[in-house]
Q: What sequence folds into this?
């Protein structure tokens, strides 16, 4: 699932807040990531059922209908090694639920620090040299709701 050297890292971003999702997707595209956005869990699950498989799944925990944990569980049933970044205002809950997941899982708290996200994405996508500054260092993601 790790992209070939020099290729773009593909990310499925699951965010129900349209403004936050669009803003984050734009920043990530500017920093060289290939982004697809799903606005709810059902759409994300449908996308995970098609090829090519994204390199990383970035999902909000609180989504209408199917929540982020259900999306992650579905994605990992289809793609057991799928790296995941969960974004939430409830990191301690997610950490307890994700214990023993087997595949890489990163839990980031809201409000989201963009440099922290890109650092983790680069690590999961195996991009960049150790100690390299993350793309977008100092940037923040505006409009992220506390969910």
A:
């Amino acid at each position: 699932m790790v992209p070939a050297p020099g290729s773009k890292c593909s990310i499925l971003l699951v965010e129900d807040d349209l403004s936050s999702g669009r803003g984050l997707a734009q920043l990530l595209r500017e920093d060289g990531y290939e982004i697809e956005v799903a606005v709810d869990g059902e759409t994300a699950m449908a996308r995970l059922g098609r090829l090519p498989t994204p390199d990383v799944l970035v999902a909000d925990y609180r989504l209408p209908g199917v929540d982020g944990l259900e999306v992650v569980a579905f994605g990992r049933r289809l793609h057991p090694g799928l790296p995941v970044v969960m974004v939430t205002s409830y990191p301690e809950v997610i950490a307890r639920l994700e214990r023993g997941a087997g595949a890489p899982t990163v839990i980031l708290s809201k409000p989201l620090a963009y440099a922290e996200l890109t650092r983790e994405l680069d690590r999961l996508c195996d991009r960049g040299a150790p100690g390299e500054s993350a793309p977008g260092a100092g940037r923040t993601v505006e409009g992220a709701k506390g969910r």
